[in-house]
Amino acid sequence: MTSSRRAESAQDRLLDQRIPQVVDAVNGVIRGKPEVVHQSVLALLAGGHLLIEDVPGVGKTTLGRALACAIGGEFRRVQFTSDLLPADILGVNVFDSSAKSFLFRPGPVFCHVLLADEINRTTPRTQSALLQAMEEHQVTLDGTTHPLPDPFFVIATQNPLEHHGTYPLPESQMDRFLMRVSMGYPHREAERELIADQSGSHPLDRMTAVLAPSRLSEARQHVKQVRMDDSLLDYLLRVVERTRGHADLSIGASPRASLSLSRAARAAAYLAQRDFVVPDDIKSLVLPVLAHRLLPREPTADPAADRDQVRGVLVELLEDVRVPL
What we know:
five-stranded parallel beta sheet; Helicase, Ruva Protein, domain 3; Rossmann fold; two-stranded antiparallel sheet; 2 domains
């Protein structure tokens, strides 16, 4: 083995060890929510975006800041309101009289981790502008394309209990998010630790970067190389296909959902320091990856009940579809 090959192999091993350290670092700030932290890092590692539906004050902003700090990236937060315009997020061309030309002033979307707080409180036009940037990883303004930083990760939040003055994301836009999670309230002991930790300095102030953004981009390329056996791919497709035409669902999972579940499963294997996918990688991600993309056949006036109905359908499907051995 040549010296360059040995150096590359050693670098890959170091990268594999540091990715789980991102989870540990964020868990040191977000107390009592290891599953949410794990799924958030998976979404980041898979190259997708994350939707958090929860009430205010449970740590959504802290989660975004902790993820950005762990990867050594730049963090921005935008409070979405009804008067927010696409230019307030993407940026704007400003005429420079001295240069007699227009200069591009980038908006807050030009960062590594963007927290789009209460995304359902802004108009569909502004929502679409952000979601287009999420999909294309670039901003086009007046015919000029500006690439976004790499990696680029969006955490969008919305309060599931408030609906007055909101613009709910349509199904086609919900489908753009790799996962949807809910943080929930911490357990009493975790909340006790949280209060004790913040009696002096905030845990975020003590965080240091585990990775550089460029190393995360390399890790995302390694995720694509994780092997998925044909039997597991067939299993994944059977689960997705069973949502289409299901008696209790009006909208099934799209091909984008299949791709998202495959990417997330590969990221889960990589995070577990494996170069191959196992059935549990897929099963554990079916609900956070698929549930927000589906609609019940007979929706009610209670969105929480609709979500529970969809999750119940997915749980039944997981029990019915045979897992390959």
